[in-house]
Write a structure and sequence with these properties.
By secondary structure, the chain is an alpha+beta fold. It is built from 10 helices and 7 strands. The chain has 2 domains: 128 residues, no CATH class; 78 residues, no CATH class. Strand 4 and strand 5 form a beta hairpin. Helix 3 crosses helix 4 and helix 8 runs parallel beside helix 10. The longest helix is centred in the last third of the chain and has 19 residues.
């Protein structure tokens, strides 16, 4: 394949499909699982953190355990293990285990995928579609499943789950506490994922955290990001009401309470 020309057998699919009910509602076929690996793989070098441990993920790699893939594909763990082993034997992938997850490398990723730098090499009939894919390639594939930072031109870009956690930290003033991420980030990001799944968009999630937090503060209640998850449905329905304190009764002097004609 020429480096300067995209093979005409390519077609382009928005990665939003990978997180849709249409894609995830039934057990995967073997072919679907193969395509899914490409969709979950990184477009560009990046990293994420698990329990405070930094995990580097390069282009063409994905960091998913067999347990996670089994849940996603609706397979048994043994079926996932056999399938990945078959791909490994066919020299399609390599697997590398570390202390927190499994790194799967698609060995011929660049032969199967368009390089995001080839935005001037597409013919006219595919140019609009390619441009769209290259814009998507600036995002990180792990947006829905993991909290990942992608590094481009030495700039760190935060993605939805981490942004939600950072907003929560700011509201609670945890962003000044050393080692907070190491001790609490994994659990907080799991709750952030649940918040994002209920919210209309990221800004909606921000507003929920802010307003539910204020509600709890006004009620004198302690709260965490898990509290946001629990109260989100009521907040979204508008049934989360702040109980306003009752006004104090006006004090009436005793002499005004005597009936007319009573001796004082």
């Amino acid at each position: 394949m020429s480096k300067n020309k995209i093979n005409t057998n390519y077609f382009f699919v928005n990665r939003a499909l990978l997180h849709s009910d249409r894609w995830l509602s039934e057990p995967f076929t073997r072919g679907q699982a193969w395509v899914d690996l490409f969709g979950l793989a990184q477009h560009s070098n990046g990293f994420f953190r698990v329990r405070g441990i930094k995990v580097n993920v390069e282009r063409g790699q994905l960091a998913y355990s067999q347990v996670t893939l089994a849940k996603r594909w609706k397979w048994s763990r043994n079926k996932v293990r056999r399938y990945l082993k078959e791909l490994e034997n066919n020299k399609d992938v390599e697997q590398q285990n570390n202390e927190v997850t499994t790194i799967i490398t698609i060995l011929k990723y660049n032969d199967w995928q368009v390089d995001s730098t080839t935005n001037n090499t597409v013919n006219d009939t595919a140019s609009d579609t390619t441009e769209g894919q290259q814009k998507d390639s600036k995002r990180n594939t792990y947006n829905k499943d993991k909290t990942v930072k992608t590094v481009k031109n030495d700039k760190k870009v935060l993605f939805p789950l981490q942004e939600i956690v950072e907003h929560y930290k700011h509201i609670k003033k945890y962003d000044t506490i050393p080692n907070w991420d190491k001790e609490h980030f994994a659990r907080a990001s799991a709750s952030a994922k649940r918040i994002l799944s209920q919210a209309n968009n990221k800004e909606h999630a921000y507003r929920a955290i802010t307003e539910i937090g204020k509600y709890c503060d006004n009620e004198g209640l302690s709260w965490t990001i898990e509290t946001i998850v629990k109260k989100f449905p009521d907040w979204k329905l508008g049934t989360l009401k702040i109980n306003k304190p009752q006004p104090a009764k006006e004090h009436i002097p005793d002499y005004l309470t005597h009936k007319l004609g009573d001796k004082i």
